[in-house]
Design a protein that fits this description.
Bound molecules: S-adenosylmethionine
Largest sheet: 7 strands, mixed
Number of helices: 8
CATH superfamily: Vaccinia Virus protein VP39
Number of domains: 1
Helix content: 25-40%
Strand order of the largest sheet: 3-2-1-4-5-7-6
Length: 205
Amino acid sequence: MGQRYDDAWIAAMLSAERAALAPPEALLTGAGAGPGSTVVDVGCGPGFFTLPAAHLIGPTGRVYAVDTEARMLSYVADEATRRNLTTITPVLAQDTDVPLPDACADLVVCALLLHDLPIAERRRMTEELRRLCRPGGAVLVVEWLPRPAEARWNRLAPAQTMELLVKAGLPVWDQAYLGELSGADGEHDGMYRLMARRPLAAEDA
Ligand SMILES: C[S@@+](CC[C@H](N)C(=O)[O-])C[C@H]1O[C@@H](n2cnc3c(N)ncnc32)[C@H](O)[C@@H]1O
């Protein structure tokens, strides 16, 4: 894979192989998104989830595309214009602070982001995911599996991701292995997804 955020990286993030392995529409629907939903895509990158989410939620829904990289937000905004999608709002975040109101989302997506954060920030980010999600709403997390033969310090095993979510008050109700993608180094990397739910206030009490 090339330099992060260059054209090759964007192409890899949006590859047909990835979309075939884990179709974003199916993941979003499985997590409860549909017409009229509000989706917050934290760490949206070039929009692997943001753009299909905008198609899925239709004219009455809203998608907030959140990233710390202005270039990613410009890419998503340009693509939204090209596809005539008017319900996407780009949001520039700083560190783990997402400038959106509490409980604004029916579904919060956080794909391939947590492993990239310094360890101390992972906890803060999962707390931010909970803050953004409305009570009874859903959180979809996608992550790379650690490579068995290689100490990739930043990769999170499903149990570690689950622990982060549960500690943030987001019980995980489903987990699935999505399959393997081939990387630029010829290796194959496994991907998985977790689905969590923010309990209703009455369940929290
Ligand atoms: C590996 S990309 C994944 C992009 C997209 N979610 C996907 O699945 O294709 C991670 C993205 O998270 C963004 N990012 C990194 N730290 C972030 C933070 N603290 N808050 C929001 N976005 C962040 C990066 O700029 C990058 O665009």
